Here is the input.
Amino acid sequence: MDLSRFPEIDASLNAASACLLIAGYVFIRQRALKAHVMCMVMALITSSAFLACYLYYHFHHGSTPFQGQGPIRAVYFTILLSHTILAVVIVPFVFLSVYRGVTGQFHKHIRVSKKTFPLWLYVSVTGVVIYWMLYRM
Here is the structure.
């Protein structure tokens, strides 16, 4: 399989996840529960697909060093560090949020989702930013 497309696929999956998260948020604010659930399930699927593709790519390709020089290096590595830490931290909170929503624990679901949503969105958006800085700058 041609590995050269994987970074682009990963960025697309992150962008799709971000869009789905925003749409899910908008739908729940409009009390459109079915649309909210559909968007959040799709966000979980796209984020999971991203993770699978990301792991496959890096297992077969390894890492790609950042080529930027000067102050942009500090910006890149700051974004990368925060993205990486939050990508690990957010996983159990996403599953907890999903579990509480699926089991009807809506007050607990809302409480954890208010913290999970912005972090998950940040991870999705910064994934696209990292792709852009690493492969398009």
User: Anything to note?
Assistant: The chain has a mean pLDDT of 96. The first helix runs from residue 6 to 29.
